[in-house]
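Hey, I was hoping to borrow your eyes for a little while. I'm sending you its amino acid sequence along with the backbone structure tokens. Take your time with it, there's no hurry, and the full record follows here.
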Amino acid sequence: MRYATIDIGTNAVLLLVVDLDDHIREITDMSTITRLGEGLIKTGRLLPAAMSRTLSALRAYAEIAEKNRVDQVICYGTSALREAVNSNEFIEEVERELGWRVRPITTYEEAYYTYLSVRADPAMAAPGWLIVDIGGGSTEVIQGSSEQFLEFCSLPVGTVKLTDLFVKHDPPQEQEIEDVKHHIRSALDFSCPPGQSVVGMAGTMTTFGALIKGIAFDKEAIHGMAIPLSAFDAWIGRMKNMAITERRQLPGMELGREDLVYQGLILMREIMGHCGSSNLIVNTHGARYGILYDMLQNR
């Protein structure tokens, strides 16, 4: 049976199309930046322009699903749709126009599905993981072993939120950078058991992998890539005084992420420092895969 899973995030909308029988065979996996959560931290609402951009992306995904003869579409939302007071407006519009029921998943579900996507991945083989999934509105920090999901915390910090709250200049001023770091550190109230492999998920990390390699995003080249802590320090220093227009020209930069990736790198660097981690492994999968692995294990 052919499935499409669609992840409606605060910054990007993700589409995964697979054939699902006793395993997953990927057909297409893509991302569109729509910034649904633009202005959410200030207004508590989804802005009309942000909803319009996201709906346009979903229309394009509906065409792709039809061309690929998808049997079932699973559509869910994360932080922005959990938090916005008017998220039902968007959810009802999607159902009215496309016939899809969008379900805002809980932080637990988001963490659990992300964990499943790592546990089922041969490239991530390890006794246990500390999985960090940086989103636009929140960051999930997940602990799990090859045997079980252990625990998680959902940090109320993400790349869009950090940018909207603190970054007012281009490039950011020194005090703005310090405010970003202070805000992140104030949220890091979890413990890190020693010996776990750190796995970095989502667009900040996949873009960082592409930046390091100096290539356009290539899933095969970036999935499983090891990044040392020193690379974070080097790139944070390199990008500190870059204007957005300069970042946009960097080989490997995903267009639409150039104003966010710096804050995202600081966020991951602070988490790694909090945990005493010297390197991480990039994983290009995520909850959109995990929701399918959950279906497989519950058959």
Notes: The domain at 121-283 is CATH 3.30.420.150 (Nucleotidyltransferase; domain 5). The chain has a mean pLDDT of 92. The longest strand covers residues 24-33. The chain has two domains: 2-105, 121-283.
